[in-house]
UniProtKB/TrEMBL annotation:
<dbReference type="GO" id="GO:0019005">
    <property type="term" value="C:SCF ubiquitin ligase complex"/>
</dbReference>
<dbReference type="InterPro" id="IPR006553">
    <property type="entry name" value="Leu-rich_rpt_Cys-con_subtyp"/>
</dbReference>
<dbReference type="InterPro" id="IPR036047">
    <property type="entry name" value="F-box-like_dom_sf"/>
</dbReference>
<protein>
    <submittedName>
        <fullName>F-box and leucine rich repeat protein 12</fullName>
    </submittedName>
</protein>
<feature type="domain" description="F-box">
    <location>
        <begin position="7"/>
        <end position="53"/>
    </location>
</feature>
<dbReference type="GO" id="GO:0031146">
    <property type="term" value="P:SCF-dependent proteasomal ubiquitin-dependent protein catabolic process"/>
</dbReference>
<keyword id="KW-0433">Leucine-rich repeat</keyword>
<keyword id="KW-0833">Ubl conjugation pathway</keyword>
<dbReference type="InterPro" id="IPR032675">
    <property type="entry name" value="LRR_dom_sf"/>
</dbReference>
<dbReference type="InterPro" id="IPR001810">
    <property type="entry name" value="F-box_dom"/>
</dbReference>
<dbReference type="Pfam" id="PF12937">
    <property type="entry name" value="F-box-like"/>
</dbReference>
Length: 316
């Protein structure tokens, strides 16, 4: 891009095209582009370029994030991704209640916040921007009282929650967020403190759920039974690396009449016949992905033959 700006023989791209290109650049290159010329500076600081900001490739400091909030992150911001310093050996914290409050004030259209390796223990949940509709936490630390209600401030009305390898996330957290939000998407990966009892208590609050992912979770037939009983709007369901599920639990999913995609890890406790019976009971099913299955070729052929309108695949 710098070479193009320096060569007058190259055709001049319209602003609309350059804005799309600048929006795709990493943060560092985006800021460098602002130094090329006055025109590029104007475009690099345009509101449309700062709708989706990914800071996760960088180990930024709290001071740098404050600078970005004050100078660049404004009411056009929709998505923000940030990586903390939880596993870097440093005790410095990237986020603070004051910074999140400033972010919520300056960026009222912020809808998606993705945090990785971030220590959230000193930050009350009520400091999270109330405009959020989607929250993703990966390898983070959260306090026991997170997702709790507060009469003093408005809380996010989350529709999409993704939790990956957050050891502290428990049954209590799940119930708190489920009872205060109308979740459409819930993805839990490596949340070993979420149990069958937690799913049972949260399930009545998750009746509008359309997408559910349970990966590396300690759940069994009881949890799956409550999924089948309450989550009738599910269109996508993944249950993987869960080895307590049996044929009896699998049969409970037959009530999910809107299910379009099923991703399932099959262990020795689940028979091919139970899989076929379930899939035949789901009229909207179009995609079936089985993981960990050690079926013979003739069993695989039987599954495929019994599901003529369903795409079928196996994963190791």
């Amino acid at each position: 891009m710098a070479a193009a700006a320096a060569n007058p023989e190259l055709p001049v791209l319209p602003d609309s095209v350059l804005l799309q290109v600048l929006a795709l650049l990493p943060l560092r290159e985006r800021l460098r582009a602002a130094r090329v010329c006055r025109r590029w500076q104007r475009l690099a600081l345009d509101r449309t370029v700062w709708r989706h900001v990914d800071l996760s490739p960088h180990r930024i400091s709290s001071q740098t994030l404050w600078h970005l909030v004050r100078q660049h992150l404004r009411d056009s911001l929709r998505t923000l991704r940030v990586r903390g310093a939880l596993h870097s050996g440093s005790k410095r914290r990237i986020l603070s209640p004051a910074l999140l409050a400033a972010l919520g004030k300056r960026c009222p259209q912020l809808h998606r916040l993705c945090l990785t390796e971030t220590d959230l223990r000193p930050i009350p949940y009520e400091n999270v921007p109330p405009s959020l509709m989607a929250l993703e936490l990966s390898h983070c630390e959260i306090p026991a009282a997170w997702f709790c209600s507060s009469a003093a401030r408005a809380l996010p009305q989350l529709q999409h929650l993704v939790i990956r390898n957050v050891p502290a996330f428990s049954d209590r957290h799940l119930l708190n967020v489920a009872s205060q939000s109308s979740l459409k998407t819930l993805s839990l990966c490596g949340t070993y403190r979420v149990t069958d009892m937690g799913i049972q208590r949260a399930a009545p609050h998750l009746e509008e759920l359309e997408r559910l992912v349970l990966r590396h979770c300690v759940i069994g037939d009881s949890a799956v039974g409550f999924i089948g009983r309450h989550m009738k709007h599910l269109q996508f369901l993944e249950i993987s690396d869960t080895y307590s599920l049996t044929n009896a639990g699998l049969a409970c999913l037959a009530s999910l009449q809107r299910l379009e995609t099923l991703c399932l890890d099959v262990c020795d406790k689940i028979s091919p016949g139970a899989v076929i019976a379930l899939c035949q009971a789901l009229p909207q099913l179009r995609n079936l992905k089985l993981g960990g299955a050690r079926f013979e070729d003739k069993v695989i052929d039987k599954i495929q033959a019994s599901l003529p309108h369903c795409s079928f695949s196996l994963t190791p």
